[in-house]
Amino acid sequence: MKSQVTSLRTVAVSQLVSERSKLSLTALGITLAVLFLTGIFIVNQSTTAALEEDATSLYKNSDYVAQAPGSFYGDTDKGEDFLSEQVLRDIADSPVVKSSWPLYKREESLQLVENKTAIMTRSNFPEDSSIFPWSIDGRAPTASNEVLVSSQTAEEYGLMVGNHFPMTDLALNSETGEVKDSERTIVGIFQVKQPNSSAARSVFEGGSALQKNLDDLALDSAGSRNVSGARQVLLELQDPHDKSAEVLNSLWANIESKQRPVLSSVEAQIQQAVRNQSQGVNVQLYVLLVFGGLALLMSAFVIANTFHALVAQRVPQLALLRTLGASSITVFWLLMLESLILGAVFSAVGVSLAYVLAFCLSKVFQDFTIDFSTSAGLIGFLVGVSMTLLANLLPTWKVFKISPLAMFTSVSARGSERAISPRVALLGLLLSILGTGVFVGGNISDQTLLILAGCFSLMLGWVLLFPLILRWIIQIFRWGASPFSNRALASQNAVHSATRTAATGRMIFLSTVLIGAVLMGYSSMKTTIFTALDEWSPVSLTATMSPDRTTPSLTYSSVSKEVQNLSQKVIQLENLPTVESAQVVSPAGTLLLDSPAQPGFLPVAYAADWTQLQQTVPVVSELLQDTHTIVINKDFAEANNVHDGEKISVQGTESNANFTVRFTSANIPFPLISSKTQQELGQPTQELFSKNNVYPTVFFKTTPGAGFSAIQEDMNVIAQTLGIPFQALSGGALERNSMEENLNKVLMACFILLAATILISCAGVANSTTLSTIQRSQDNALFRTIGMPSQRLQQLISTEILMISLVAAVLGSLVGVSICAMGLQILAVEDLAVKYSFPWIEILAMICTAILLSWLAALTPAQQAAKISPIEALQHTR
User: Residue 381: CB partners within 8 Å, gap ≥ 6?
Assistant: First the structure.
């Protein structure tokens, strides 16, 4: 038995070595697929390790952590998201607690250096610095105007101890409600090891202004602890043992379950934190695995096609083995052993390249730490070997169905092949019918998963049926062509070698289906989202004239005069290239509401000139034609318990006036009334502005088709002219640009992830053409013998691949566009009006690119086939 295994291994290795030129492209496909898949697992485990290290660094000086139940479980249905004041007091007063750190956080855009801002997390520094987990260069902050920044932030922005930068004065905000910046001094820099961690983007401040501000916000919102506060408290105990935990838990025994904190050890807290944060990582992994699966599928096509051709060409050799006494099962295991060796060797190469590439990237991008554990490589290796064996199973299994006499028949004498078996055709038809039914059912029942499942089933059915459709269309190319023309001969060759034609066409077809779907999805999503965005945020740019964040551009001493001066500046700004129209809207009076969203605070209505509003925000001007109409955003109305059509009163500086409410879905930042009614209410005064902390606002409408770079240049002019910081500008143009950048990133990511599939597809086309020309070497020799020039033989082979790629690319793009259009119905389920946009230029470019790449992939095999002499070709045929 041992000698038999040794003999099989020897024969298998010998065969692989002798056929290495034919298997080179197959090996490339295996290597690329395993490289891509291993890279996916390396990225995933590195991200998970980074999350764990981030959590570990925060809790390393703590013994226990008390966390609000909603925050701990990542689900507000299980409890409140923030800890109550009672819990915080109980912890601070507990005799078993040595020190505690209630962790308050607030996201804020900070201007760390001139003309450069960053989104940072403001956090409070603990009263006892011993629980702070990072080492500090400098000293700990003790007052609200003193802060710590991370070593990464300091390096990125060139900050040092003693530097200053502005932050919102939360103490002033808590006392007066004003939003004003004050200078903060960097007194220390804390050292972080993990780049781009949550700590690296944090600023820790001294004092208690942040805690008081967030606690006051919770109280202003009817005491709801799902609004703000501290989500967790880090605890350092006098004697960290189990009884201390029991004492702490007993303090909260009588607290209602949704408010009762979860007390956990540091180890349990780290595990839970990683579990909560890894939800997004898991989604990322699933998306990457989909693309990895596509690469594996494409590689499986290449492997199956290669071994199908090799088995067919080795029929005489296999017949000799049978004649010498080898059984069918022995021949079967011989071929499977060959695929095992091939898969193992080049899966190992793919895994090795993945680790080498990861090492190189870790040196280039030092902000991201790579986890080099072997689990990712082991999984990639096993998947690569398994894929190779499974892909080779069907071609190898056919050995059992071939009789010894048939094995002695030459390859060319066996006639034309079938494109697909009847069973595969039936399965493809059933999947297509099933997918259509599931899709229709999903649309009727508004079930997203059913819609996606129907689209996937339909696509799979088309992939299975495609070789049959391809064969029918290829035969059409012979119509009207002379029998010995390149078109007729190429069509005949493609039909005769149906298996290779099907494999080549299927790889091109699947690639173009995926790319066509991505292009259609990008174009339609962009149109749909931009249309919805234009309706939701119709104001292109909004400039809020707040005097608190910069040199005052508006004082309270002469409101009317300042508003007039502002209007003159706005008229000048209308001459900017990207500004089509602009207008000033000014506070006019307070809304007298029965149940405002924030008790004790009455919202302010703004007055707008209706004629100007027709140009800047026409969708709102249509609702404001009646002078006694007030236009209110639906979300604002719902929060303040206001109903469409009801009458509400606005209190002006001189009198009150009643208005009829009209709803708008547009994101108007405040209620709007007509400026004609302002005379009834009276002119705005200093008291109206200062008491309600409101300011005039400028609406801009940008020129249609203006590029964002040009808009951004004019935004700088607007900010300088109005005397406001650049960050005070907001509106639909910024949101549109942000959304477009995100969509472009998604599109680029899809193409990068599809790159492995496309490369394997190109290798598969070249491999299929190589094997096909080798199999047809006798036919090619006959063509050369009867006088066909080598150049024409090369043209004949190229014409065949051009036919296949043309049909596959056109059908693939149509199927991809159709499948994507069907899949976009999930947006309709979410009440988003789908706006289809067919990217015909991109689709046409994709078809041409697919044909060109297929031709280039087949160029070298075609040239090699054309160079062979007739005698050599006849000798090469086995």
Answer: 34, 38, 344, 347, 348, 351
Q: What pLDDT is stored for residue 785 in this prediction?
A: 72
- The domain locations on the chain are 57-278, 314-409, 470-537+731-878, 542-710
SS (H, E, C) 490-559: HHHHHHHCHHHHHHHHHHHHHHHHHHHHHHHHHHHHHHHHHHHHHHHCCCCEEEECCCCCCCCCCCCCCH
13-37 core/surface letters (b: 16 or more CB in 10 A; e: else)? eebbeebeebbebbbbbbbbbbbbb
Given a cut of 70, whether residue 367 has pLDDT beyond it is: no
- First-to-last alpha carbon distance for the chain, in angstroms, is 31
Q: Which of 646-650, 729-733, 764-768, 806-810 has the lowest mean pLDDT?
A: 764-768
Q: Phi-psi category of 339—alpha, beta or left, where left has phi over 0 and alpha has psi -120 to 50?
A: alpha
CA distance 841 to 819: 19
CA distance 820 to 807: 20
Return phi, psi of residue 370, to 5°: -95, 135
Q: What number of other Cβ atoms are within 10 A of residue 525's Cβ?
A: 21
CA distance 31 to 350: 4
Does the predicted model carry a pTM greater than 0.85? Answer: no
Amino acid at 823: G
* Domain with residues 542-710, CATH architecture: Beta Barrel (2.40)
**Mean pLDDT for the chain overall:** 78
Residue 435 CA to residue 454 CA, distance in Å, equals: 4
Let me know how long the chain is: 878
Nearest one of 389, 341, 399 to 17, comparing CA atoms? 341
pLDDT tens-digit map of 529-576: 888 887 778 888 888 776 544 334 444 445 667 777 888 888 888 888
Other C-beta atoms closer than 10 Å to the C-beta of 415 total: 6
Q: What is the DSSP string of 108-138?
A: EEEEEETTEEEEEEEEEPPSSGGG--S-EEE
Q: Which residues contact 477 (CB under 8 A, 6 or more apart)?
A: 487, 488, 490, 491, 803
Q: Give me the numbers of helices (H) and strands (E) for the chain, helices first please.
A: 30, 19
Per the CB < 8 A criterion, the answer to whether 797 and 492 are in contact is: no
The model's pLDDT over 264-318, given as tens digits with 9 standing for 90+, comes to 888 887 877 777 666 656 666 776 777 777 777 777 777 777 777 677 666 666 6
Cβ-contact 247, 107 below 8 angstroms? no
Q: Looking at residues 12-29, what average pLDDT do you find? A: 69
Rounded Cα gap, residues 139 and 150, in angstroms: 13
